[in-house]
Design brief:
Elements lengths: L1 H18 L22 E3 L4 E3 L6 H12 L13 E5 L14 E5 H19 L5 H13 L4 H9 L2
Antiparallel strand pairs: 1-2, 3-4
């Protein structure tokens, strides 16, 4: 386990030094505060959370890149294939497709957070984790990449 923490620490350090203003390593709280699904297509998990199907069009994605670049990032000058538009609160946790929940996430960042996101949603499906707790955990992780190994270990133990 110690080796995993060292590996994550090195990965986070390399992401942080690589980013150096090129792209955000976490969502901006003013542009992307997060938003839950308000017009559900269905309900999921034992808790019956509202679930929205993925529905983000190309113009919305381009607008999110432009909005973040107005903060001084250079995402539109980088390879588009190195990014995805991330749902700050993941759809599987009841997140919305609204712009308040979307940000351009570089692959070096989602390589750190995606496994945690999937695990938390699995725990919700098993009834071992409530939506409010999963949302709090993933937001903490996406804003503190260096904490992801500890958070992942705690989530695995649920």
């Amino acid at each position: 386990m110690k080796n995993l923490f060292v590996l994550f620490a090195l990965l986070v350090a390399s992401v942080t030094s690589f980013a150096q203003g090129q792209f955000p390593i976490g969502p901006d709280q003013n542009l992307t505060p997060g938003q839950l699904c308000s017009r559900p297509d269905s309900h999921r998990y034992p808790e019956g959370i509202d679930y929205c199907e993925r529905d983000v069009d190309g113009s919305t994605k381009r607008a999110r890149f432009a909005a973040y670049d107005q903060l001084g990032y250079r995402t539109r000058q980088m390879n588009r294939q190195d990014f995805k538009i991330d749902h700050y609160i993941p759809l599987c946790m009841g997140g919305s497709n609204d712009v308040k929940n979307l940000w351009p996430q570089h692959k070096s960042v989602y390589e750190i957070t995606d496994s945690l996101e999937q695990l938390l949603c699995e725990k919700m499906a098993q009834g071992k984790l409530l939506q409010k707790d999963a949302v709090r955990i993933i937001m903490q992780a996406k804003n503190n990449l260096d904490q992801v190994p500890e958070i992942l270990a705690r989530a695995q133990a649920l």
